[in-house]
Structure formats: C-alpha cells, structure tokens
Design brief:
The N terminus and C terminus are likely disordered. By secondary structure, the chain is mainly alpha-helical. The relative contact order is 0.06. It starts with 5 loop residues before the first helix and ends with a helix. The protein has a domain of 64 residues. Helices cover 72% and strands 0% of the residues.
C-alpha cells in the first residue's frame, strides 16, 4: 500500500533528479553497458534503469516520522502540534460547516433537480 503523500513524492522526485544530475556520466555508462549486454535499445533500458535508481535512492532516504513512530510518539507529536496553535481562534458555527454553508450556490441546483425528479416520476 502506498502511504506517501504528494509532498513526499515531490521530495523523492527532487532527490532522484538531483542524484541523476550529480551522476549523469556514470548513469550514462551504466545505460550503455545495459544496452550492450541486453541487445535492447536505450529507450527500452531507460525505464528499468530509472526504476532501479528510484528504488535505490528511496532506500537511502530517512523514513518519514509516521512510518517509524510508535503510538506514544504519534500521540505526543499530535499534542505538541495542537499546543503550538493559538487558543483564541474563533470556532466555526454549525452553519459554516454544514453542506448549505459550504455549497451555498448548489442549494438552488439541488432544489431544481429534486423538483424535476419529483415531476418526472409522477
């Protein structure tokens, strides 16, 4: 199951791109060797080499907090995070978090659609 977030994927992609840029000559030499020993084209070898590099670079990265934290560490981190926020922030009322409050413009459309369905079925 993939539990990485989009920001995590972006970070991994950035690290991989930096790795490829730093080792461009070595990676090209590996690709050339693979082309030679497999008798495949470079375009056929490249996706496999990229996948292998991605796995190798990913294995070197420090795991994310949620991947290694115990239940107690996660609870403490949540408490620390919640304490770091202001306590005088006004709360939202029930209307503000209701469907009507969030989708004000859609309420007319829903009414029209429901009237159409009622008229259509009778």
């Amino acid at each position: 199951m993939d539990t990485s977030t989009s920001s995590g994927r972006n970070s991994e992609s950035k690290v991989l791109d930096e790795f490829k840029e730093a080792h461009i000559e070595e990676i090209q030499a590996i690709a050339s060797t693979l082309v030679k020993i497999t008798n495949l084209s470079e375009s056929a070898v490249k996706p496999h080499l990229d996948a292998m590099l991605e796995q190798l670079v990913k294995s070197k990265q420090k795991p994310l907090f949620y991947e290694t934290a115990s239940a107690e560490e996660s609870i403490q981190a949540l408490k620390d995070w919640s304490i770091s926020h202001r306590r005088d922030t006004p709360l939202l009322d029930d209307y503000a978090v209701s469907r009507a409050g969030i989708y004000e413009d859609d309420s007319d459309k829903i009414l029209i659609v429901s009237q159409f369905i009622v008229m259509k079925t009778t």
